[in-house]
Amino acid sequence: MSNTVGRRSADLLNGAADARSQLYPMLVDGQWITAQEGGTAEVTTPVRRGEVIARVPSAGVGDVERAVAAARRAQPAWAAEHFKVRARALARIADDIEARGEELARLTALDTGNALRTQARPEVATLVDLFRYFAGVAGEVKGTVLPAGDGQLQYTRREPLGVVAAILPWNSPLMIAGFKFPAALAAGNAVVAKPAADAPLSLLLLAEICQEHLPPGVLNMLTGSGRVCGTALVEHPGVDKVSFTGSTEVGRTVAQQAGHRLAHTSLELGGKNPSIVFPDAVNDDLIGGLLLATRFHRQGQSCTSGSRLLVHADVHDEVLDRLVKKLSELVVGNPLDEASDIGAIINETQFCGVRDYIVDGTEQPGVNLALGGLPPTDGPLSEGFYHVPTVFDAVEPNWRISREEIFGPVLVVTPWRDVDEAIRLANDTNFGLAAFVWSHDLDRALNTAHRVEAGWVQVNQGGGQVIGQSYGGVKQSGMGREASLEGMLEGFTQTKQINVKLSA
Is 229 known to be catalytic? Predict the structure, then answer.
C-alpha cells in the first residue's frame, strides 16, 4: 500500500470528486491499516464550515497495544545501528520532505487553516531543517570517561529511552513533529505518534515519507481522539517517554497520567507572552518585529504569540498607531490563496472561544478597541472560521483578555512608565514560555531579558524558533526542552554509568 496517503492527498488537493469521502489509513509496524474496531472520524477543513475533506481511523486501545508492541520490537535493532545509519535515514527523509514540500504545505493549509504563503510553506521548510539538523548531530549521543586511575575504567553511555509517545497539536503539526521525531529517532528510540484529531492529514503524509527510509515499527502513526487513543498511549506501560505539545489544561492531565507510572515526560504548553517596548526602540524594524511576534500570520494560534504588548507610555500612541496601520493591511482569507496573510481558525469550538474573549474585552470599562472586533457575519469570510486582527488598548492586567491564553488574532496593549513596573506586568502570569524585549540600549535589553520569567526571550526580533536552540517553557508553560542537541540528550536519552576494575 505504498504511497497510499500520497494518492489520497493528491486527489484531495486536485479536487477529485470522491476525494472527500476517502479513508486515510494509519501506520503501524510498517503497514497501513484501519482501526481494529472499524471506527472512523471525519476530518473537516476550517476553510468552509462543516466541509468534510477526509475520514481517518479512530484508533482504540487495541490499536495502541499493536503500535507499542511493534515499536518495542523494532527499537533495539534501530538503537544498535551505527549512528551513521540513523543519520543517513534522517537526511534522506529531509530530502524527500523538501521534494514534496508544496504538497505538504497545501495539505497543511487545507487541514489546519494556516495560510500557505505566510505559514504553511515556512513550516515545511523548518521541518526539513530540523531533520537535517538532527541528522548532523546524531553522532553526539555519546558518553564520557572519568579519569579514575590505571586500575579503573569508569565511563558513561548515553542510551535511548526506548519507545516515545509523541502527542501533537493542531496549530503547527509539521513543525512540532520536527521537534520530536528526528531527535527521538537520532537517539535510537522508536516513536508512536498521535496527531490532533483536527489536523491529522499532513502528519499521515509525513509518516508515509518517513516510512520509506525507516525499518517497520520504528515510526508508527495512530489517528484518534485524545480521550481514547491519547490516554491509552500516555498510560501504556510499554511507553517509556511521553512528549506532549498542547494546552496547559490537557498537559496537566497528561502529566498526572504519565507521572502515575513515573514515565519520562516533556510538556510544551500554553503562553501569555509579553512584548516589552522601550522608548528608544521605535523604528520601522520594531513595527515589523511586533507584527511577527503577534503570530497573527498563524491566526494567533501559537504558544509563543506575543499577545501582551507592554509599551512605554512616552511612545504608546506612536507605536499603537503604526502597528494598527500595519495590522489593518493584512489580508484575511482562504489559506490556499496566495494573497492571504491570515488563514482560518482551526474549528468552530476555537472560533467561538476567540469570539467570546472579544465580547468580554469590549464590555470592560475604559477599554479602547483600536482595531477589529467580532468576526464578519456575511461575505466570503463568514463561510469559514475567520477572525480579523483585533487590538485592545488601555487593558488592565487583571482582565481575562490580559491573563488567559486566547489563541486567536487578539493583541492587548498596556502602557507602563517604570522598568520595574514593566517587569512586574510581564511576570504577572502563570505562564512562562516566551517573551520579547525591544531596546537598542544593550545593557537595558539584556538586564530586562534576564529578569523576565520565560524559557525563551527574543531581543529586538519577533521571528520564530532557530534550529538548534533549546525550546521550552517555565511555570505552567511546561517542562523539558526540545529542538536542540541539549534537548535531544536530556529528553530522549538516559545516562548509564559503567565502572570496570582493571587487572594490573
Answer: no
